[in-house]
Amino acid sequence: MIDPPTLAAILLANFRTIQLPPSEPHSKAAGDRSGQAAQSPPDWMTIAKARRADDRAAEACRDRIRRALVEHGHHQFLQYLEPDPAGGWRLHLFVADDHALLLVDEFTDARIVAGAPASFDPEEFVMQRLRRLVGLDSDFE
User: Fold this and answer.
1) Could you please report the per-residue DSSP string of 58-111?
2) Does domain 4-22+44-132 have CATH number 3.30.70?
3) Domain-by-domain residue ranges, the chain?
4) What pTM was computed for the model?
């Protein structure tokens, strides 16, 4: 087994963010290019349904990636899902195996970039999660 500090360094080196854009809560709200007038803005219920659909799509993507990694024998990884300030979601993935990074491209059509957190500290997240997983009470460097 890899010691926790080494595993933390590997996970942070293999940190990727999958950007899940928001869905359109309504179609052609601004009109189309044919010159037709714009439709009225969507009501709150339409927007709420679109947000709920986005939440479910993000969770489904997260679960699909988790299952695929495990099915391919990759068990050392962490995930963190956070709202994207620009809309949509950011699924942060920390993997312990370089080969798992190659597989992630096959699991989703979303845009994958080097780790891009919006509002959390990746190092703190990894360290806290590893402490919890291995039951360490003291800090490790």
Assistant:
1) HHHHHHHHHHHHHHTT---EEEEEEE-TTSSEEEEEEES-HHHHHHHHHH--SE
2) yes
3) 4-22+44-132
4) 0.76
